[in-house]
Amino acid sequence: MINQRLIHLIDPQFITEAQAGFRRGYSTIDQLVYLENYLQEGYKNRHHTVGVFFDIEKAFDMTWRGGILLQLEKWGFKGSLPKVISSFLSNRTFRVKINGSLSQAYVLENGIPQGSTLSCTLFNIAINSLVNNIGTDVKCCLYVDDLCIFGSGKTIGQISRKMQPIVNQVLENAEETGFTFSITKTKCVHFCRLRTAHYDPLLFINQTPIPCVDYVRFLGVTLDSKLTWEKHISDLILKCDRALNLVKCLCSTKWGANVATLIKIYKSLVLSKIDYGCFVYGSARSSRLLQLNKIQNRALRLCLGAFPTSPSTSLHIEANVMPLQYRREKLLNNYVCNRASHDSHRNYKILFKNVTAYTDRPTITCPLSVRAQEIHPDLLTEICNIIPHNKPEIPPWRNFPINVDTSLLQYDKYGTNPKLILAHFNNIISGMRHHNIIYTDGSKTEDGVGCAIVVQGEHYNWRLPDLNCDNDMITQWYHSSIVYLENQGKHITLLWVRSLEHTGW
Predict the structure, then answer these.
(1) Which parts of the sequence belong to the Reverse transcriptase domain (predicted)?
(2) How far apart are CA 145 and CA 9, in angstroms?
(3) Which of 24, 40, 263, 492 sits a CA distance of 20 to 30 A from 418?
């Protein structure tokens, strides 16, 4: 309860937009998409891009508790909430158990208790000021304690003069909040595809040069200096090969698992690794992406017991598994449509922008936003009708329970006299004369999909896209009913739906 109230008050009003960790509707993919788009812009403009990837030492264990309370005070929180959080953080003890023996209790002087519901939110508060005063010339991505700052320019000298003050500012913020960076694990990458002679940037942390490397691992994805994804795909193939060993052990025709079980194991252990960030590294050359197809084809042959010469098309049809190319396109479209409902998300602007600068130069690699529009040219016009996902205006502590009357379910629809059902229905209506009654219905046929609501004798109907399902109709009902009530200024409502599953029960 306390965590829900705290999140409602601080997110997104106080939490920086650069933070994507422990936030609803955000993920590591958002940061990778943002970074990939920035790097592709630098390649397009023939600029140098420098990224500094920081490593925080023992972030959770060394979090300054006083900084959390101080941050809440700066944001204007007073009363019982800061007191409850202070009580939660203070007087924490721990014991160590070895071979059944417990040590004496020790007081936990620093850090946030791990495993609690409040821990993630409090850590976001503690690390929020780490990226303060960075400015607009240098961008940053923050996921929990993984921080990356990056800037672009025509010359390395220009970038160094711009980046070093930002690095110093991050170090100053870290010192104020109690975090420390690992000098040996903090890396710098010079992203560039120019063939002319140039030197690597020279940036410092406390008078110590930051090592410049050819590739770095960030949020589970390996980024190389030319963004060819060669290192990431080669590492991914090695991981998938190791995971396929389990499938090989279970695919015996005498004692092994059945086909359905083997395919589930493949999807869980191998395909999940390939899917992660697949539409981000989808800008790699087709020859490199084909190497992943070989992994899937080999896995399907093991699962199905097919011959080595079996065509890959037949394997996908028999196993009911989508080819990786189509799967990448599907996941990409899902991501774009999901972000279309979050117009306040910072990736919204980079996904739905003018792409003529890339279409005029077909030889350069394109960012995710351009590839999405190449796959589905009408995507921008079709997603305009997506219902936006906004923060609830009613705080969680004022939510009223929704009462669902299921008494009509006691009657069999086909074995009960309709007059009896109607009499029971009228009896329910008679006790709710002061409610605004809204009737809903929808239909999906071969000709199309549509839904309608009836309120106070007025009819409202909508034609939905043919690909919509029953859940889309339900969403349209509820959304239309809420919009009507907001326009009329009414609150007490009786909403009739056609089946129990539409209530969410």
Answers:
(1) 1-223
(2) 22
(3) 492
Q: What confidence tier does 472 reach under pLDDT thresholds 50, 70, 90?
A: low
Q: What's the Cα-to-Cα distance from 361 to each of 285, 350, 356, 357, rounded to whole Å?
A: 17, 18, 9, 7
More confident: 259 or 386: 259
Domain ranges, residue 475: 400-503
Kindly state whether residue 392 falls inside one of the protein's structural domains: no
Contact 205, 181 (CB under 8 A): yes
Is 30 within 8 Å of 36 (Cβ atoms)?
A: no
**Structural domain total, the chain:** 3
Strand, coil or helix: what is 71?
A: helix
Decide if 234 is inside a domain.
yes
Q: Which residue from 65, 84, 58, 177 is spatially nearest to 122, judged by alpha carbons?
A: 65
Instruction: Indicate the average pLDDT of the chain.
Output: 86
Element (H, E) at 455: strand 449-455
Rounded CA-CA distance 58/178 in Å is 11
Contacts by residues 345-350 (CB-CB < 8 Å, ≥ 24 positions apart): 345/25, 345/26, 345/30, 346/17, 346/34, 347/30, 347/33, 347/34, 350/33, 350/34, 350/37
37-96: per-residue pLDDT in tens?
999 999 999 999 999 999 999 888 888 888 999 999 999 998 888 899 999 988 888 889
Q: Could you tell me the pTM of the whole model?
A: 0.84
Tens of pLDDT, residues 14-32: 999 999 999 988 999 999 9
Any idea what DSSP says for residue 253?
T
In terms of domains, do 102 and 144 share one?
Answer: yes
Same domain for 275 and 245, yes or no, is yes
Question: CA dihedral in degrees (496, 497, 499, 504; nearest 10)?
Answer: -110
Band the pLDDT of 487: cuts 50, 70, 90: low
Residue 390 within a domain: no
pLDDT value of residue 466: 63
Cβ pair 147, 130 in contact under 8 A:
yes
- End position of a domain, from candidates 164, 198, 224: 224
Task: For residues 152 and 288, state if they share a domain.
Answer: no
Gap between the Cα atoms of 442 and 265, Å rounded: 39
Q: Is 77 left (phi over 0), alpha (psi -120 to 50) or beta?
A: beta
